[in-house]
Specification:
Layout (H helix, E strand, L loop, with lengths): L1 H18 L16 E5 L4 E4 L5 E5 L13 E4 L6 E6 L2 E6 L8 E6 L15 E7 L7 E5 L4 E4 L5 E5 L13 E5 L2 E2 L2 E6 L2 E6 L8 E6 L15 E7 L7 E5 L4 E4 L5 E5 L13 E5 L2 E2 L2 E6 L2 E6 L8 E6 L15 E7 L7 E5 L4 E4 L5 E5 L13 E5 L2 E2 L2 E6 L2 E6 L8 E6 L15 E7 L7 E5 L4 E4 L5 E5 L13 E5 L2 E2 L2 E6 L2 E6 L8 E6 L15 E7 L7 E5 L4 E4 L5 E5 L13 E5 L2 E2 L2 E6 L2 E6 L8 E6 L15 E7 L7 E5 L4 E4 L5 E5 L13 E5 L2 E2 L2 E6 L2 E6 L8 E6 L15 E7 L7 E5 L4 E4 L5 E5 L13 E5 L2 E2 L2 E6 L2 E6 L8 E6 L15 E7 L7 E5 L4 E4 L5 E5 L13 E5 L2 E2 L2 E6 L2 E6 L8 E6 ...
Length: 1189
């Protein structure tokens, strides 16, 4: 009875497949097997993204408990790990990690998957797809560029990629800027395809930085850069800006109570850095409120209220103010001044202001006082206006705190006038002004203003229809006279409506609507337009222009082209226009497709300049279609096509479908007995024609019973019972199978295959072979069988490896006909191992090996790694100071054992700091700072360095090398005089200001302490003053005598140095760059026309000696500074001067002056070095700074 029910069910199922069913009238019948109706990706899909989520959809709801890792698998030879979920009728497989690029994958849903009534799939559902090749992201540009120089100190560093990146992978670990191997702090941001690094602090001047984007930076698919991207750039040499003058000056007295305080810089500054925080005024500890402004190179502080009389104020410019290159002041600039005393009234403002120009001819002159004045003292005697020696008649009045002078006649144009409030003006207490208050101003000219420029220009053509018309005047105009009456636009005699505005010296006419195309317009500025002095244009100014003609848009190309043939049936039709179109006019009415007179339904879209028509269903084969773009399609200006654009094309003729692949393949062998037979077609087929009549399987002439199904482009034949072993079967797809267009196969498709036999499988080869020796300890063990095996029987139980009786842990995999055992850790060297394949391993027919297969092999003995080469070589000389030290090994090493402990560098017994890295077989030691010139270094690789097998070096590897000799002249030994920042023979003076000598002493000999003046306000930081007449502490006089003798010896040594040969120089060295060496002049030496740069070229020990026969002078200011670059140090620069040296105003100076006579530092000059003279005096003029070199 059960047999009859099953047979009846089979008849029902077969009938459903033979008849076919539409989706909308399908009725589920309990007991009918579920099927897979679609997959993502599709079967045969290519270029699938590596982050693809994979899914299969069934024709009914399934039992979710049957959908799991065992029943839903993705494989690329090995199983892909992933997470499986189920919702509705769709199962989803989310890979744990991205798929491998350019790889074929096989998806499988097994027959263990069941619906909610327990019905299982009747055959495994199998489909394939492949991922695309993915290129690694690249850095395509940087800013600054590689090796760029003169980079601003406030630079934001950027790197741009060739594709969008994962912003989460761009951070301070993957994008950083380093200096000598040390990362600088900063913030990393990402936008578009560009990553930006904003340093926390400004970069250092004249310094080389390294930018790095590591392989940790990834695109959204998780793909990293192929290698770290590294580039370098160098900042510019920037001289710190200075405050060169103030108003009031330092220590000024009797400053007016309404004074605007200003500070002028040596160069233009960044206005954003000049504000109430960086420019302050204090009275004691109280900060004054006021407004800070900046213009040209001068900052101004305007107090909110007048100063208090007889009070000391302190002005401060913070060292955080900077120039446009980002260079800040070296120090805060501080000065003081005192206001005038008493309760004297003052003039606090005037109208016009002092030196104001373009003053109106009808101007009333006014002056506002600091307090209420006696009105009787404000009269024509105390408030006067003159033009040269001529007094101007006028009426005087007074109100509140303001006096007014109203000239009886208009002032003369283009004339300078002088206004005066005399001391006869008194406050209510009878106190007069301290001094006459005088100011001047200039009236505007009577020259008629002119129009100097228009846009469009006169007679311009092709003017855009949305043009705003402008006219620019020769002088500022009275805005109230620029309006719709004085600025008009006409088309012929018709006025154009619009809005008139005025800004700066330009009037603008903005038409209310677009101008007409191809039309001539006339614009006019009438003589009602006047300048600020009330002078009108001499005559109306008129000009004309013409707008562009209207050009109808056209269709410039179509796809398919007109009269194209063989067009695909799923073609999307497109038309590209000559200009952008109004998308609202591109629709199903203006873009149509017809088959004869029958309209084809479809969706119309528009992007860029292209319209697209996507038919709802595939086109018919071998058919002529006509596409039309009507004149309803318009451009953005509303201009339609001049006429309908019509073109036609013919679709490809019907082509018979073909079978493009089968599983098993034709003449396939060793086919499993439970195989589901499948055939894949060249195109989608009509499922109703894929049935047991059109898809058959025979053993000889005997038909095999089974179930036929179809999905995607693949038909499946699932035999009711397992196939017989060792048997040839013939499968056939008949011409009854048809595609969706009803076209059948051209002929029956027939193929054969042979099932697996039940002969016991054998192991036919192993790797290593039996009794092999010298096997690598990292060897993966493999065994190849005579026939394909059942993968489920190849596992850790049936494939084992032992060391004696101890089992070696490892991972067993199977591919093709080969099993692999990959040990978890490397095998031990010089050891015999035994591998075994047990009889638990079976072929696809379930036949096991006849007996266990056993073989042995022996691993190679351990060999200590060696250092095969170094750079520099052992005993190398002349090694560059920026050298990275490397050692190359005989074998790959364990990177974790190559570090700062196992790879060291020493100068004598002093360890050198640096960064150790490892790549390939080479270890590198990159010193944090340049090596010292003329020194011998010792590098060591210790026995702590081990290869990947854990074998260490037999002994420490040690080698030495020597760096290049120092550049330039011989070092001048200053002896005991080196402790002094200033030493003189007869006097040391600080004439004015708060000079400082930092971290050095001041000395005089044979002069006495009374010859040292101006200390304070000059101060010595971390130092002291010593004079020859000091009695305490004991021994000062002797110490000074020795220091002066050491100075004399150093002077004579520098003057007589001859190696290397001195280079003759003369006159002005400004604007030049000098390498280390000896430079000699037989007269004076000057630094005036620009800065002198001393470039050490990377040698921190480089020496310069200047042998100057007579005087030495720097001019200072914008030029005349000394600049160090390339690692140059001030302590190694010596200026031997035969008479006196003068350091000019605001000079930035470096080096040691050894003068025979005297040294003078002018106002604001600063030095890193020493001012040493043998016979004369050292004079600091005003606020000089000397820092220890």
């Amino acid at each position: 009875m059960m047999f009859l029910r099953s047979f009846a069910l089979l008849i029902v199922v077969s009938a459903i497949f033979i008849i076919g069913c539409k989706k909308d009238d399908f009725v589920e019948i309990d007991g009918v097997c579920p099927i897979v109706v679609s997959t993502i990706p599709l079967n045969g899909a290519t270029n699938v993204p590596i982050n693809q989520v994979i899914s299969v959809t069934f024709n009914e709801e399934m039992n979710s408990a049957t959908i799991n890792q065992a029943t839903f698998t993705i494989m690329d030879g090995a199983s892909v790990q992933g997470v499986i979920s189920y919702l509705g009728a769709t199962a989803t497989f989310t890979p744990t990690s991205p798929l491998i690029p350019n790889t074929s994958y096989t998806g499988r849903v097994s027959t263990a998957v069941k619906d909610k009534t327990g019905n299982a799939l009747q055959a495994d559902y199998v489909w394939t797809f492949s991922t695309g090749a993915i290129l690694s992201p690249l850095v395509i540009s940087t800013d600054p560029a590689n090796n760029e120089s003169n980079v601003n100190l406030n630079k934001i560093v950027t790197a741009t990629f060739n594709m969008p990146m994962d912003a989460l992978t761009l951070n301070s670990s993957t994008f950083f800027i380093s200096l000598a191997g040390n990362k600088i702090t900063g913030q990393v941001t990402y936008s578009g395809t560009t990553a930006s690094f904003t340093p926390t602090a400004d970069l250092k001047s004249n310094t080389t930085y390294t930018g790095t984007v590591t392989t940790g930076a990834k695109n959204p698919d998780g793909l990293s850069l192929a290698a770290d991207y590294i580039w370098t750039f160098t900042t510019g040499t920037f001289t710190a800006p200075m405050v060169i003058s103030t108003d009031p000056t330092n220590n000024a007295v009797d400053v007016g109570l309404n004074k605007i305080v200003t500070a002028t810089f040596s160069e233009p500054m960044d206005p954003s850095s000049i504000n109430e925080s960086t420019f302050t005024l204090r009275q004691g500890v109280t900060i004054l409120k006021g407004t800070v402004s900046y213009s040209g190179s001068t900052a101004s502080f305007t107090p909110d209220e007048p100063f208090t009389a007889g009070t000391l104020y302190t002005g401060t410019i913070s060292k955080s103010v900077k120039n446009p290159s980002g260079t800040t002041l070296t120090n805060d600039y501080i000065w003081t001044f005192t206001t005038e005393s008493g309760n004297t009234p003052i003039v606090i403002s005037t109208d016009p202001a002092d030196n104001e120009v373009d003053v109106a001819l009808n101007k009333t002159i006014s002056a506002t006082f600091s307090e209420v004045m006696d009105p009787l003292s404000i009269n024509s005697t105390t408030f006067t206006l003159t033009q040269g020696a001529n007094a101007i008649a006028g009426a005087i009045s007074y109100s509140g705190t303001t006096a007014f002078f109203n000239p009886i006649l208009n002032l003369l144009p283009g004339t300078t006038y002088t206004a005066t409030i005399t001391t006869g003006a008194k406050n209510l207490a009878g106190t007069p002004l301290a001094n006459n208050y005088i100011w001047t101003f200039t009236t505007g000219t009577l020259l008629a203003p002119t129009v100097i420029f228009t846009d469009p220009a006169n007679n311009a053509t092709g003017v855009s229809l949305d043009k705003i018309i402008t006219a620019t005047f020769s002088v500022p105009m009275d805005p109230s006279t620029i309006n719709g009456t004085t600025f008009i636009l006409k088309n012929g005699t018709t006025s154009v409506s619009g809005t008139v505005t005025y800004s700066g010296s330009t009037a603008s006419f903005n038409p209310s609507s677009n101008l007409l195309s191809g039309t001539t317009y006339t614009a006019t500025i009438t003589n009602g337009a006047k300048n600020l002095a009330g002078t009108p244009l001499a005559a109306d100014y008129t000009w004309t222009f013409s707008t562009g003609a209207v050009i109808a848009p056209i269709v410039i190309s179509t796809d398919p082209a007109d009269n194209a043939t063989g067009v695909n049936l799923n073609k999307t039709i497109s038309a590209t226009f000559s200009v952008p179109m109004d998308p609202l006019t591109i629709n199903g009415s203006t873009f149509t497709l017809k088959n004869g007179t029958t309209s084809v339904s479809g969706t119309v879209s528009y992007t860029g300049t292209t319209a697209s028509f996507n038919p709802t269903i595939n086109l018919l084969p071998g058919t002529v279609y006509t596409a039309t773009i009507t004149t309803g399609a318009k451009n953005l200006a509303g201009i339609p096509l001049a006429e309908n654009y019509v073109w036609s094309f013919t679709t490809a003729a019907a082509v018979a479908p073909t079978v493009i692949s089968t599983d098993p393949v034709n003449n396939g062998t060793n086919v499993s007995l439970d195989k589901t037979i499948s055939a894949t077609f060249s195109e989608p087929m009509d499922p109703s024609t894929i049935n047991a009549s059109t898809f058959t399987l025979r053993n000889g002439t005997t038909s095999v019973t089974g179930t036929v199904s179809y999905t995607g482009t693949t038909a499946f034949f699932n035999p009711t019972t397992n196939l017989q072993p060792g048997t040839v079967y013939t499968a056939t797809i008949t011409t009854g199978a048809k595609n969706l267009a009803g076209t059948p196969l051209a002929g029956d498709y027939v193929w054969t295959f042979t099932t697996v036999s039940d002969i016991a499988p054998t192991v036919i080869s192993t790797d290593p072979v039996n009794n092999a020796t010298n096997v690598s300890p990292d060897k993966t063990i493999s065994a190849t069988f005579s026939v394909p095996m059942d993968p489920s029987t190849i596992n850790g139980s049936t494939f084992t490896l032992k060391l004696g009786t101890a089992t070696v842990s490892g991972t067993v995999t199977y591919s093709g006909t080969t099993a692999f055992l990959n040990p978890t850790t490397n095998l031990q060297p010089g050891t015999e191992y035994t591998a075994t394949i047990t009889t638990g391993a079976k072929n696809l027919a379930g036949t096991p090996l006849a007996a266990n297969y056993i073989w042995t092999f022996t691993t190679s003995a351990a060999t200590a790694p060696t250092v095969t080469s170094t750079d520099p070589l052992n005993n190398a000389t002349g090694v560059s100071l920026n050298k990275t030290i490397t050692a190359t090994f005989s074998v790959p090493m364990d990177p974790s054992t190559i570090n700062g402990t196992t790879f060291t560098l020493k100068n004598g017994t002093t360890s050198i700091s640096g960064t150790v890295t490892y790549s390939g077989t080479t270890a590198s030691f990159n010193p944090t700072e340049n090596l010292l010139s003329g020194n011998t270094y010792t590098a060591t690789i210790t026995t702590g360095a081990k290869d990947v097998q854990g074998t260490p070096l037999s002994n420490n590897y040690v080698w030495t090398f020597s760096t290049v000799d120092p550049a330039g002249g011989p070092f001048v030994d200053l002896g005991t005089v080196a402790r002094f920042g200033i030493i003189a023979g007869v006097g040391v003076s600080n004439n004015a200001g708060f000079s400082e000598i930092r971290n050095m002493d001041v000395g005089i000999s044979p002069g006495v302490r009374s010859s040292i003046t101006g200390f304070p306000p000059a101060i010595i930081v971390n130092g002291d003053i010593y004079a020859s007449d000091d009695v305490s502490p004991p021994g000062v006089a002797a110490m000074l005598i020795q220091a002066k003798q050491d100075l004399t010896d150093a002077y004579n040594f520098a003057a007589g140095a001859t190696t290397p040969a001195p280079v003759t120089v003369s006159g002005d060295l400004g604007g030049t760059t000098l390498a280390p060496g000896i430079y000699k002049t037989t007269s004076t030496l000057l630094i005036q026309s620009g800065d002198l740069t001393l470039d050490a070229q990377g040698d921190v020990n480089a020496v310069w000696i200047f042998q100057i026969a007579s005087g030495f002078t720097t001019i200072g200011g914008a030029g005349g500074n000394v600049i160090l670059s390339g690692g140059a140090q001030a302590k190694n620069v010596f200026w031997q001067t035969g008479s006196s040296a003068t350091i000019g105003d605001f000079t930035s100076f470096y080096g040691n002056i050894l003068a025979l006579t005297s040294v003078t530092m002018n106002s604001g000059a600063t030095a890193v070095g020493r001012m040493l003279c043998i016979n004369g005096a050292v004079v600091m003029t005003n606020t000089n700074i000397i820092n220890k070199p």
